[in-house]
Every structure is written in structure tokens, then in C-alpha cells.
């Protein structure tokens, strides 16, 4: 088992060789068809020069939830689903040491194209979690690269 506990994650073929998610320390809480919930702790090496979460770290975290929701947890022999475009809105600064949670949900699926919304929450000591960012992903299912 790795230091981050990634080896203990519930089975999802996408995580088998996902070294970025392992480095982020992502934990998979729930995955269903069109849905994923993940968490991670905001560590010092994820901060920018202002001492708050680097936007790229928040984006990568949300992108992992997006990928998990897009791709079946049973795997696919022939196809993968990837981002065709995304938008992210940062609403609050990410505070070091807090736990982040991303909740990804499919909104629409038409043929090979889909739309997913991902909310990123931040824990707040003694209060309810707050929305840190909103991410909307557009997906496209394509043949697996050979």
C-alpha cells in the first residue's frame, strides 16, 4: 500500500496507473454511473506564492472527479471518455490543511458527448463545508488509443 492510501481505493480502472491522483493524495469515497465523490487534504506543496491553494491543484482535483464520473467503474475494452473542454470558477481561496471534497454529477449525455458539473467543497472548522469552486466539464467518448 502506498503512503497516500491510493492502493486502498475502491476499484476503478482509471486509478490503476494514475500517478497524479496518487501524488495529490486523492481518496475515492463513492463512484457510480455518472457520479463520483473524492477527497484530498490541501498540503503545503499545493500552495502558491500567496500561501493559498494553487489553482492548478484545484483544477487537477476537480478533473479527477470528472474523469471518474465519465468513465464506467467496470471499465471499457474499446473506449475512453476524455475532456473536450472545461470551465472552472474559483469562488474562495483554498486554505492549507483543510480537506477538499469534489462531487461530480453527469447532467446530460447525448451519444458520445456529455456535460458534467463538479462542485469542490472545503472543510471549515466548526461550520458547514463551503463551496470553493465550480467546474463544468464537457466530455467525449473516443476509441481507446492503441
TrEMBL record:
Domain of life (superkingdom): Bacteria
Domain Thioesterase residue range list: 50-123
Stored SUPFAM superfamilies: Thioesterase/thiol ester dehydrase-isomerase (SSF54637)
Short name of any one Pfam family annotated for the protein: 4HBT
InterPro entries: Acyl-CoA_thioesterase_PaaI, HotDog_dom_sf, PaaD, PAAI_dom, Thioestr_dom
Keyword Hydrolase: yes
Keywords (A to Z) from UniProt: Hydrolase
PANTHER family on file: ACYL-COENZYME A THIOESTERASE PAAI (PTHR42856)
NCBIfam families linked to this entry: PaaD, unchar_dom_1
Protein known as: Hydroxyphenylacetyl-CoA thioesterase PaaI
The species this protein was found in: Paeniglutamicibacter antarcticus
Lineage: Bacteria, Bacillati, Actinomycetota, Actinomycetes, Micrococcales
Encoding gene (name): paaI
